[in-house]
């Protein structure tokens, strides 16, 4: 009985010591085994690992790709047009031993603060070497690559590999928005005025061309009409001449009837002349033959 009572606490202590010497490394992390603050082992492969209880401790770090949003910063491009840039970076801890030595017990928080300083400095340097048009254009991917490449070397001193740097937003400072808006509006109004002037000029050319075409068409039509009318008059005169040559008496009769028709038009026409006027030669004749003029 005494032996069992004595062995039981020893067994419990042994089991507790065994359990405290075992730890599991997850596939999403890396681990450091520290002894009195000094790194004695690096565990990067997932699975079971061992440490000395009470003397050694385990520090775990995320092995996944991490994201860090950089606080918005103001940059001044070559054209002195200030911009507020909002960026973020994706990074990964590649050397946990160097990472521990660089940041100490501060861990991820300290590393990200130092990473912010690196990214802000490189962003100001790269964006300060180009114009604001380059920053605001769709071709700014090259600028982001330059920022990343410039920050990689400094980040490696922290045991970090920067995978990507992106500019989320590029805006004007609040105090410059109104002035910029007025400048943009004035520029658009100037462009609109130029467009209207060019449109009016084109419209004037079209109208002038149309008026010229109308005059040319009308003149040509009138010329052709005069030619046709002259030809018709000539043909009519020829017909009259031929008719007069074939039957002079009938032609004179036809001309008299035409004169009567034209002279006696309308319901209130009046004509005053002598009854024995030659105008009524055919009206006085009972058989339609012209009367002989009086001697």
Automatic annotation (TrEMBL):
Gene3D superfamilies for the chain: Band 7 domain
SMART domains: PHB (SM00244)
Domain of life: Bacteria
Main location: membrane
Membrane topology recorded in Swiss-Prot or TrEMBL: Single-pass membrane protein
Family matches, as InterPro entries: Band_7, Band_7/SPFH_dom_sf, HflC
All residue ranges annotated as the Band domain in the record: 20-184
Keywords: Hydrolase, Membrane, Protease, Transmembrane, Transmembrane helix
GO biological process, alphabetically ordered: proteolysis
Gene Ontology molecular-function annotations: peptidase activity
Subcellular locations according to the entry: Membrane
Protein's job: HflC and HflK could regulate a protease.
Family: Belongs to the band 7/mec-2 family. HflC subfamily.
Protein name: Protein HflC
Gene: hflC
């Amino acid at each position: 009985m005494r032996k069992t009572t004595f062995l039981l606490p020893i067994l419990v202590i042994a089991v507790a010591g065994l359990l405290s010497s075992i730890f599991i490394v997850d596939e999403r992390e890396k681990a450091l085994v520290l002894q009195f603050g000094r790194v004695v082992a690096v565990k990067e492969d997932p699975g079971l690992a061992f440490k000395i209880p009470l003397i050694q401790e385990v520090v775990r770090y995320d092995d996944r790709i991490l994201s860090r949003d950089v606080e918005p910063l103001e940059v001044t491009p070559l054209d002195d047009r200030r911009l507020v840039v909002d960026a973020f970076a994706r990074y990964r801890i590649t050397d946990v031993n160097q990472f521990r030595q660089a940041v100490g017990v501060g861990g991820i928080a300290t590393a990200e603060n130092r990473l912010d300083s690196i990214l802000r400095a490189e962003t100001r340097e790269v964006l300060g070497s180009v114009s604001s048009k380059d920053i605001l254009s769709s071709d700014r991917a090259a600028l982001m690559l330059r920022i990343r490449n410039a920050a990689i070397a400094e980040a490696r001193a922290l045991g970090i590999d920067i995978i990507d740097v992106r500019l989320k937003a590029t805006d004007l400072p609040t105090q410059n928005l109104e002035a910029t808006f007025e400048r943009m509006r004035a520029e658009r109004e100037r462009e609109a005025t130029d467009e209207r002037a060019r449109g009016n000029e084109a419209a004037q050319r079209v109208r002038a061309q149309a008026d010229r075409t109308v005059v040319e068409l009308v003149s040509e039509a009138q010329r052709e009409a005069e030619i046709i009318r002259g030809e018709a008059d000539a043909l009519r005169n020829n017909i009259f001449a031929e008719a007069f040559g074939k039957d002079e008496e009938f032609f004179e009769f036809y001309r008299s009837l035409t004169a009567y028709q034209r002279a006696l038009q309308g319901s209130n026409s009046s004509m005053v002349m002598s009854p024995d006027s030659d105008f009524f030669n055919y009206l006085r004749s009972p058989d339609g033959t012209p009367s002989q003029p009086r001697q």
